[in-house]
Amino acid sequence: MRSLLLLALVGLGAQLVDGSLGMAYGVTSTTLLLALNTGAASASATVHLAEIGTTLVSGAAHWRFGNVDWTVVRRVGVPGAVGAFAGATFLSSLSTETAAPIMSLILFTLGLYVLIRFTVAGLPRDRVGLPLRKRFLGPLGLVAGFVDATGGGGWGPVGTPAILASGRLEPRRVIGSIDTSEFLVAVAASLGFLVGIGSANINFAWAGALLLGGMIAAPIAAWLVRLVPPRVLGSAVGGVIVLTNTRTLLRSDWIGAPDAVRYGCYLIVVVLWVAAVSWSLRRHLADRQATPVAVGPEAGAGEHATTSS
Question: Is the overall model pTM greater than 0.85, yes or no?
Answer without folding.
Answer: no
